[in-house]
Amino acid sequence: MSFLQAPCLLEPDGYVVVCRHLDQFVALFPEVENVLGEFGFGLSGVGESVLLTDGQGVLVDSLSYDDMSPWPAAADGQGFTLQLIDASFDNADVESWKASDEVGGSPGRPNNPRRGFLVINEFMASNTRTLVGPQGDYDDWIELHNLGTDTLDLRGLYLSDDLNRPLRWQLPDTTVTARGYLIIWGQSNTQNTTAMQANFRLSKEGEQIGLFDRDTWNNLPIDTLSFGPQEADVSLARVPNGTGDFQRVDQASPGRSNDVTAADFDESGVVDSADFLLFASHFGVSREQEGYEFRYDLDLSGAVDFLDFLIFAESFGGG
């Protein structure tokens, strides 16, 4: 058995990669910063044990892997890595492991970039006059928010209004930008013609919402909630934005932060000239036109117009 000892500072929620050949690893993954090498042994392709001990030789963690079923075949010489599905899972259980979604794995970053970063951030289960949907109806809506600093691929995820039926509606091939928002509409009274319209409605009497991962991640829940009876045109939103508990909010904020002034478009903490330039670049755009965004339509009328400018002007200089 071979051993590696090296000084290393590991930040909270951070990563360190230990590699056999440092120059080769850096050439393949130049973006990874916290790297240790070189160690003088390799990992067996037919399975073995890996031990992690502290400075006194006390065992901290260990795992034993194999290249035989039920271990994932894709990780056996095809370029994919073995990944722990969730850090809380028992790594002694083969069911806790899967083949990586991409060749080369995800060294130096989360195995699953969606878990802990993608949240259900706001929803309205009784929308009678607040926000016009893509069909011209006042449909229910659910807002997803990306807390991370990288764009997230949502292809293959599932959304449901029943936690016992996680595969109710599969999201289309779409993304949500870093710190960005995505609105998903409930089933319309007219025929659904947009990809971002689910095949269910939310019940104003109360029910559940669940966001579930891809089939390759065993459809694990990413974020879920249960809610009771809802008031018309009142949303429930996470406060603080993205991380807090769901609260009744006086003014819905689809497509923008739940706890900043609505006109603070860049979320700097003050409504200033930078926000005016953002607003001006969207002035005159309606929901039928390319480039329309909810957050600039401050009165949610379906168009960024003079009434929105008046609302903006009243907020100017505030924070």
Low-confidence stretches: none
Rg over CA atoms:
24 Å
Strand tally, please?
17
Mean pLDDT: 89
What is the overall shape?
Answer: elongated
Please identify the top-level CATH class of the largest domain: Mainly Beta
Strand order of the largest sheet: 13-8-7-16-17
- Count of DSSP H/I helices: 3
Measured between the Cα atoms of the first and last residue, the distance is 61 Å
The proportion of strand residues reads 15-25%
Helix amount: under 10%
Question: Could you state the oligomeric state of the chains shown?
Answer: single chain
Q: What is the architecture of the largest domain at the second tier of CATH? A: Sandwich
Secondary structure class reads: mainly beta
- SSE order, as H and E? EHEEEEEEEEEEEEEEEEHH
CATH fold name of the largest domain: Immunoglobulin-like
Give the count of structural domains.
Answer: 3
Q: What about the largest sheet?
A: 5 strands, antiparallel
> CATH H-level name of the largest domain... which superfamily?
Lamin Tail domain
Walk me through what this model shows.
This protein has 319 residues and is mostly beta strands. Helix content is 8%, strand content 22%. The protein has three domains: 17-99, no CATH class; 113-259, Immunoglobulin-like, CATH 2.60.40.1260; 260-319, Orthogonal Bundle (Type 1 dockerin domain), CATH 1.10.1330.10. The protein has three helices and 17 strands. A five-stranded antiparallel sheet has the order 13-8-7-16-17, with no helix packed on it. Helix 1 (22-28) links the parallel strand 1 (17-18) and strand 2 (35-36). The chain is elongated, with a radius of gyration of 24 Å.
